[in-house]
Here is the input.
Amino acid sequence: MKQAARFAAPALALLLTIAAMPARAQQDPGLERFRAIYKELVETNTTLSSGDCTLAARRMAAHLKDAGYPESDLRIFVPEGHPKEGGLLAELHGSDPQAKAILMLAHVDVVEAKREDWTRDPFTLIEEGGYFYGRGTADMKAQAAIWVDNLIRFREEGFHPKRTIKLALTCGEETNSALNGAGWLAKNERAAIDAAFAITEGVDGDLDDQGHKLDLQILAAEKTSQNYQLESTNRGGHSSRPVADNAIYHLVRAVDRISHYEFPVQLDDASRAYFAGMAKVLGGENGAAMLAVLKNPQDAAAVAILDKNVNWHAMLRTTCVATMLSAGHATNALPQRARANINCRIFPGDSLESVRATLLKLVDDPAVSVTVPEIRGPIATPAPLTPQVLKPVEQVAAQLWPGVPVIPTLEPGATDAQFLNPAGIPTYGVDGFFVDPDGGNIHGLNERIRVTSVYEGRTFLYRLIQIYANQ
Ligand SMILES: [Zn+2]
Here is the structure.
């Protein structure tokens, strides 16, 4: 509406111009500009090994400056000792000083990608067969580019929101050992990102095999990733004279016992809402099992049906899995040391210590220690899914995709919400991108996202933020 009004005066000239434009640009003259920002962001390598988030942040800041944002509302932040892991803070001021801001949050770093493994160059945005290909096209440079595009459009259109709209582009979400930008901001720049709530990535809309839209998900809770180290040490000796007391044997028995264990089934508000919503979408045996588990989480038959799906299995409980092993020092020596990394995904409400206690009990061997090698962040706390947050998502989804249900969910993985929720900024994941059943192979080879998904998501997030900003 506002776009059309801007161009209303030279009506005839506009009509002639429109007739000559491609169909996509006709509907929205800002689309090509958005695509250029998205392309630039994808083509800025932001891997930890050879990329530069600070450069990506500077490039995005330049677009905002061009759009008229004063320097005082744009800030590049660079954590000390991490020159390439910086980010951007920007804001569009609200008219009501009493109204709390809302925060558009996105990480701009990406998972490593090796050119020789990929079919196409991972750091070139390639449009092919209805898809955008490239590292970060889905996770999460589309949403990051939309946040920048939103701020440009809002300013251009003279949008004066009630609340201040804040933008934070950060680095270090994808690599556990890296400095996490959102965590750094929560600790060092808490006031700068203060907001009633934040919107970021996490879950998408689902498409079926035929490309039909099934549901749009919104992330309202997530599990916490925590590593535990199992270690067995021994005096060792010559392998020609073996003894029963062997560090590797102690360790593998302990790992084996962990492999057979399932943590008890649990539900929280987000997973309850998810299973209730998905039961309606899916029906059949799975739908019936979801309803049965909602009624009785200890219904073993129903749990067994849901456990066949790796996502549902992970949503129902804390999980722990062996991810790395190292042991021994020579092929002809009895091992002096054997170690395993156990990666646990802790269900909201469980604690780091209670999971360690369970592992110790399973290990059941004084020759094997269970320690916590590092703590990345606080245990995730769920964000309450209030009508203030949920209703606008439902409203815009109903405009764009009538009949497609909005379904809250608990994410077995983790996002930057793990740093903002404990800092008192409830953080939700929603993007309006509908993705194929394989999720676009994010983090993997040939990452991709449907072109229409990105463009529809852009419209969705533009309208959503406008509604939030005027609440
Ligand atoms: Zn991501």
Notes: The first strand starts at residue 74 and ends at 77. Residues 451-469 form the longest helix (19 residues). Residues 107, 139-140, 173, 201 surround zinc ion (CB under 6 Å).
